[in-house]
Amino acid sequence: MSLIPDARRVELSLLVFSALIGALAFVLSCLAGGEPVAHATRVMAVVGALIVAALLMDLLDDRRDHLLLPLVSVLCCLGVTILWRLGDPGTGQHVAASKQVIWILLGTALMLMTYYGLDDVRSLGRLKYAAGILAVVLLGMTMLWGIEKNGARLWLSLFNFVTFQPTELAKLLMAVFLAGYIADRGELLRRTSASRLGLPTVELRYAAPLLLMVFFCLAIFVLQRDLGAAALFLGLFIAMMYLATGRKGYGVVGIAVFIVGALVAAAVFPHVGDRISIWLNPWADPTGKGYQPLQALFALAAGGVTGSGLGLGMADLIPVAHSDFIFAAVAEELGLLGSIAVLLLYTLISFRAYQIAWSATDRFGALLAAALATIFALQSIIVIGGVLRLIPVTGMTLPFLSYGGTSIVCNFIALGLLMVVARDWMPAGRRPES
Amino acid sequence: MAPGIVLVVGKYLLIILIYVFVIIVFRALMTDVAAAAPQLRQRELPQPANRVAQPRPITRVAHARPCLVVVRSTVLAAGQRLPLGDSVSIGRRPENAIVLDDRYVSSRHALILVRDDRYFLQDYNSTNGTFVNGQPISDDVEIHGGDEIAVGSTVFRFIEGS
Amino acid sequence: MRELSRAIRKLAMVPLAGFLALCLLCGWWQVVRAVRLQADPNNKRTLERPRRVIPGEVYSSDGELVLGAQEEHGKWVRTYPIAEAFCHLTGYNDRSGLTPGLLDALTGQGCYADPWDDLTYGRPVGCDVVLTINARAQRLATRLLRGQRGAVIALDAQTGAILCMASAPTYDPRNVTQSTELFEVFRNDPASPELFRPIQGLYPPGSVLTILTAAATLDAGIVKPDTNFTCGSVEWIAGSQVRCRHSNGYGQLSLTRALADSCNIAFAKLGQQLGPKRFADYVARFHLLDAPKLPFGEGVVQAGRMAEFVGDNAEAELVQTAFGQGKTLVTPYAIAVLTLAIAREGRQLAPYLIEEVHTKRGKVLKRGGATSLGQAVSRQAASDVAGMMVECVETGTGGRLAVQEVSVAGKTGSAQNPQGVPHAWATAFAPAQSPRVVVTVIVENAGAGGVVAAPIVQQVMALLLNK
Fold first, then answer.
1. pTM for the complete prediction?
2. Hey, is the C-beta of C74 within 8 angstroms of any chain B C-beta?
3. Which listed residue, A178, C65, C172, C174, has the most CB atoms within 10 A of its CB?
4. What is the pLDDT of residues C441-463, one digit of tens each?
């Protein structure tokens, strides 16, 4: 009668499947570059770590989400393969790919810690104000003492030892804050919100902390000229307000606010204006400001339907291929089929995260999972949309694929949080069955 | 430099593998959606008054012995008939009379009891509950011909003997 | 709780729509707009491609490797086995010489792509190109021009194939790109070694253009070969002073002698009789000013420049042009093509440079050939001029054009120019009865064509005729 095998077996076999995909991809790029196949230990380390993580999580619990880890595993393997194939800009060594593996291992460990450490996800909800204030403080510190890399001040140095991107961490903190606040005060917000002149309004008394926090973040992003993060936070805020009140009007208001804000920012900051005019016509300055988006488009075109094959294209010509434009590298070497496959992986992860959200048994868990799902989906769409000229290019990383320690670690922590929420939903969660 | 044929075959194999992976995950994901869906749908159904008491005549004609017919399930074939004896336990563990290898079904989930040709359904305090015509049951309830019993992602129709 | 769960379901549809839009957009850039993006001039891949694919090589018609390729650290670099003689054809990088024009063939793109190459090599493979150039003639011509500035061009009179196209001074393509300093020196060299003189050099044609004037007036029925002219040493024609090269003037002479002895005054008079409109018409029929259709990069091939016959000086300009002076400038290639038309009884051809393009496995994908440009002048007019050119070699200024046992038809010229010493011109075809080769030579600022240029023509022609 057993038609559906145990979820655990599904997860393990899917992880092994992902190892197969990762190994094949990596071996192909090794062969194309004429390098020894033994380098494929990197992807094996990634999948190995995830399998160990899955087994360790199995020790504690009977059931949990079993689809997110394999999906993430495929993305991480592809990311490491592409990074290895690109080589480090300038030197042609493979330090970035190896470092990425270490970040993934670290992220996996933190995901496990989150999973073990958080017995009840609601305990996190009680820290909502602390999370919100910490997010604002982090962003403020970046603005004051940040280090500039590639023209944007998005990095913070810890004891002159490690640098990290506070935006990535602030995303998680903001998700906790918004979910906590709305779980607490959502009912008040919903009851006091009304529709006037077709636009939704809220009672300022109840929405004030929310609006204050969000506008503070947006102000910092605008001052830092980080248009992508501003769009991400605004989108998250709109989504959460919709969940709190059930009014779609926030979407309209939010988009209007964003467009007006972007136009004002474009007028005030030449940097933002440049990005927008380049987006509208990159051919106006093909060797200067339009260089990056144009070369990304040429990479897409070079890929065609089936792609050049890993290591056989000219993906190393793509500027910033390690982070912002890594999708262009995938699209060139794996073609339209590959780029749609990667988009499907992102779609599945977002959908699964939303599924965890709507099946959650408590409000905070549902809202937190929905917030994390929205961040993940929105960030992927903003970054890939920038490459595909759907929107202007923004300096953000593509989750699990791009190179970047903070990004990888934070996304794994978010994964851990989703698993914690799913644990409460999944039937017979922590209670033993018999 | 490896021979081109390896690289070309590998390229297509890689793409095929990723798509197979995507399809497998997609199907698993949809199973979860489907499994979660009946519970949600039933939870939201408005309750018709006294519907429990009205058996459908057509089911009386077809079968001689009382049984459960699978209406929809992710683990059993739809239309499958499970004859009912004295008392029948439903659950995930193999020692049950009706085994549902379903993640939404508890080890010992529910029990159907027979007393004087009357059938009663009992929930074993399962995680996800047992539903009769969309309504979760707490105490023992009597079931009649045509009633729909939902356990996890499986929905049975109870057919009385004639 | 139930409402929240329903709201989340609805919210989840928004990113789903977003991802769907991204999928469609991928299709738009990767399939619909792909061809246009690949051809975009800003695309760095076009320049990088020759180093990534297994590139094609270029051979001379007699099978010598002209432009090779070898792999260094996973990337392909060009080699130049016959460095100097072919430098202007091979160029010194991917943007010079024939390589931009042959890019698709050499990198296996477009109609030269072979899907089987992907299976054998895992990456595209370029096609090999065979030129019509004869390496021996090219080497000889380069050697003969050494130490001078000038050009040699030889054509097959039957097929229109370009057998030799040499330019001097030459350079070594391996050296000039070694450092920016060397490249600067090369670029700023006053002798302009980079200039590919057969198609890029623009010169006053001098008396070699009298071939055209003679053919045109004969075709128009204005004169006959034996029509007589009077030549004083200096005459004023249409307000322009024309000086004959003979200090005392030739006196009474026929058109044949005028061409053989290069009498400016006779041709000045003929030009005047022909009139500007008809003269321009014949220039167009001989395609004298057309830029050659050869596979060089953009801006390499040059069109000739004609003096404008307008305003008060119109007739004076025409008279000067009729014997090859004035503001009209032509390429050596144009004079070779003019000679070719005379050799072929007036039937004009556009010469070609690419013999064939074939894959590494030997499958011929494209074969070159000359295109017909129509009848420039009547057969009679062309053979009359050919006869005069034979006379020029046998008894006139072109004595040094003569090849043993072969009757040669030719014309020499000494073109006055602002740089000082006249440019030496010579153009000829042989054998006169059934022409096989056409050779045209110019040596810049070298003196009389009959003395400097004619021996070069003679040697190249002898080699090509196996004499």
1. 0.72
2. no
3. A178
4. 999 988 888 888 999 999 999 99
